[in-house]
Design brief:
It is a single chain. The protein has nine helices and 13 strands. It is an alpha+beta fold and about 350 residues long. Strands 2, 3, 4, 11, 12 and 13 form a six-stranded mixed beta sheet that branches. The chain is globular. It starts with a strand and ends in a 7-residue tail after the last strand.
Length: about 350
């Protein structure tokens, strides 16, 4: 029996959950596609670099979905100039492919992510563009046909447009009243804003009994400990121990799905920063087996909004995105801002979507 009752801070668990949910879905149909296999490998490299960059400017928990970000940025690539295309393409760690091959690949990924059932990743994407901006027909068609996205013209300086963006975000994340953007978010130089939304829904194959949930300590850092609701179950899980990382891995499968959530627990109660320094090694194959495990996991609810254009510029897109890139006075398409909102709520039954208010 393995005792996993020392819970790690949410940050590493959250990040790892997102990566495995996304990659696991792609793997379900990528068995015979060399292009998709290359994309998965690139997704892992991109995830590591994005995590490191976002972590620099974040104090506390954060929630990101690198796959979803790759997808909406790949859509925007279709409208970019050749010079900007190369910078963005390289940063995204995309495999070399023709435009038609890339479109087909993302059509498959979107279809797989969009499967209905007990477990799913629900998403919505929209590119808001300045009125009068030149948008190529290929970008318009691909947005709908290959990425299940939309492009909408707005006046970024109008208060009604700010309200429209926030209202769309709230309606698609069941989080009415959210203020993702304000009247200070944009300027006359703003050409286009990419918005990506995600929430995760899934039921554990084996639920945590509600009668076992009770308050307990959660060690945020050496100086901060919080009382949280701790769930507990004693059953068989896929479990691995990595001696080099001095960390335990446990997979929680989701019902009616190939998706699973992986929790990574350092041996040291405050060992999360050490694991984060070796984030790339968390993607290495672990040697799992199936013992009975007494597993204690905190219930948590994270709703996070991230503006990612600074991180992307630091990763290699400098000069390709942002207000000071390109010629702000022309009408050519260019990415100015990139936003992502993600929600995950973990409880005894699984990962639940947020409840819609007012109904």
């Amino acid at each position: 029996m393995y005792n996993l009752n020392r819970t790690a801070p949410f940050t590493i668990n959250t990040m790892r959950i997102l990566v495995l949910l996304s990659t696991g879905l792609v793997l379900t149909f990528a068995q015979n596609s060399a292009l998709l296999q290359e994309f998965i490998a690139g997704n892992q490299r991109f995830t590591v670099e994005l995590y490191k960059e976002v972590r620099k400017g974040t104090d506390g928990n954060f929630l990101i979905n690198p796959l979803s970000l790759q997808m909406i940025m790949s859509l925007a690539l279709i409208g970019e100039s050749d010079e900007d295309f190369r910078k963005i393409f390289s940063t995204l760690q995309r495999p070399e492919a023709t435009l038609d091959e890339s479109k087909e690949m993302f059509t498959q990924i979107v279809a797989n992510l969009d499967k209905t059932g007990d477990s799913t990743i629900a998403s919505a994407n929209r590119i808001f563009v300045k009125k009068g901006l030149e948008i190529g027909e290929d970008l318009k068609v691909s947005a709908v046909n290959n990425f299940k996205s939309e492009i909408e013209e707005i006046n970024f300086l109008a208060r009604s447009s700010i309200s429209k963006i926030n209202r769309w975000v709230g309606q698609n994340t069941f989080d009415e009243g959210v203020q993702m953007v304000t009247d200070k978010s944009f300027s006359k130089k703003t050409k286009s804003v990419l918005v990506n939304l995600q929430y995760f829904k899934g039921y554990w194959q084996k639920s945590f009994p509600t009668r076992a949930t009770k308050p307990g300590p959660f060690y945020v850092s050496e100086t901060v400990t919080k009382q949280v609701e701790l769930m507990e179950v004693f059953t068989n899980f896929k479990y691995a121990y990595n001696q080099s990382l001095r960390a335990q891995f446990i997979e929680i499968p989701l019902r009616d799905s190939d998706m699973f959530m992986t929790v990574i627990l350092p041996d040291d109660k405050y060992g999360l920063p050490r694991l984060e320094e070796r984030i790339d090694e968390l993607f290495y194959e672990q040697f799992y087996y199936g013992p009975k495990v007494r597993f204690v996991l905190p219930k948590f609810d994270i709703k996070a909004t991230a503006q990612l254009d600074d991180a992307l510029r630091n990763m290699g897109m400098e000069g390709a995105i942002g207000e000071n890139s390109g010629n702000p006075d022309d009408n050519k398409f260019q990415v100015t801002n990139v936003y992502q909102k993600a929600i995950i709520i973990v409880s005894e039954d699984g990962q639940m979507p947020p409840a819609r208010r007012g109904i």
